[in-house]
Amino acid sequence: MRVLILEDEQPAVERMVELLQQYDKNIVLVAAFDSVKDTVDWLKSSPHPDLIFMDIQVADGLCFDVFNQVQVQAPVIFTTAYQEYAIQAFKVNSIDYLLKPVDFKELVTAMEKYRKLFHDKKDNPVLRQEIIEGVRKMLEKPHKNRFVIKVGEHLRTVSADDILYFFSHDKTTHISTTGNRILIIDYSLDHLMEIIDNEKFFRINRQHIINREAITDIVMYSRSRLKIKLKVETPDPLIVSRDKVNSFKTWLDS
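and the corresponding structure tokens:
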């Protein structure tokens, strides 16, 4: 079985490959990409695989953009970090999804469903455009533009435009605002990536999400990585992890 993975988190790719090998050692990963653009380019020039795993939200947009640019001749299993009621639409259309972090038992269930529905048939189904657009509309909620922050005994609101970067420290998420104020926020970085504007914010590594407008300089760093300088001093260097460099450049160029 030939498998393609669209996922912008390298640890998630490695985890998926490990689980697939645990399920069936004959499964072959033919390609893994972190962006819609690279996936489309590959699908236009290569034989399509037997099965595709797609993270719903990747660095340069939603994975549904793939279907707008190329006719995908393979069934798809979607992955996502958060349970959304809208994703139930996949189930009723014989399309499955997995919640991150992917559990082996859930993967087995999805793979058995795939084998039952598609693997033993000569033709692979094409994901219908009306299904894609219907699910896209349900998933694309308005971006969160304001956050309620507790400051002592008081509640304050902070505009997303005033947030220079989000960061995680000691299992707590913080924001740095204009004026260099550091405040605690009740969201994980994973959750934030689901609700903030991904054209404005980018997760450069596991600890940091930065605002495009806060960037003042980008310099080359060791081992093909990039170092980001913002309008404010940061306690730790802001380094774009190696597996995100390409998608970061795509994001900058979008």
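(Above: one complete record from the training split.) The chain has two domains: 2-139, 146-253.
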